[in-house]
Amino acid sequence: MDLRREQLADGVEKISLVGRMDSIGGHDIDNRFAAVVASRKLLAVVDMSEVSFLASIGIRTLVVNARAQSSHGGGMVLASPQPLVAEVLKMAGIDTIIPVYPDVDSAFSALMASSESR
């Protein structure tokens, strides 16, 4: 599992996850993802377009870090999940905890709008 970071406009960070968020990949990425997302106040778009599989350990990583970000006063949204991953997010109810958008641009716009209303 790989993690890539990119600065977007207005201080928003795009975090791209690449690979399978299964027991091996999820464990591999958990600490690195938490170090980026949960350690400070942040507005983050998590690009899921290159995540080919999402298991419960990956879901846990996303939820724990989204909640940590929320407690810091920041925000985290998910963008561009592949159809199988989007289905898992919906079936697990994660889309009610972490907003999910079809692409990075709409995720960025929604994140900016929500941060302005805080």
From TrEMBL:
<dbReference type="InterPro" id="IPR003658">
    <property type="entry name" value="Anti-sigma_ant"/>
</dbReference>
<protein>
    <recommendedName>
        <fullName>Anti-sigma factor antagonist</fullName>
    </recommendedName>
</protein>
<feature type="domain" description="STAS">
    <location>
        <begin position="10"/>
        <end position="111"/>
    </location>
</feature>
<dbReference type="Pfam" id="PF01740">
    <property type="entry name" value="STAS"/>
</dbReference>
<dbReference type="InterPro" id="IPR002645">
    <property type="entry name" value="STAS_dom"/>
</dbReference>
<dbReference type="InterPro" id="IPR036513">
    <property type="entry name" value="STAS_dom_sf"/>
</dbReference>
<comment type="similarity">
    <text>Belongs to the anti-sigma-factor antagonist family.</text>
</comment>
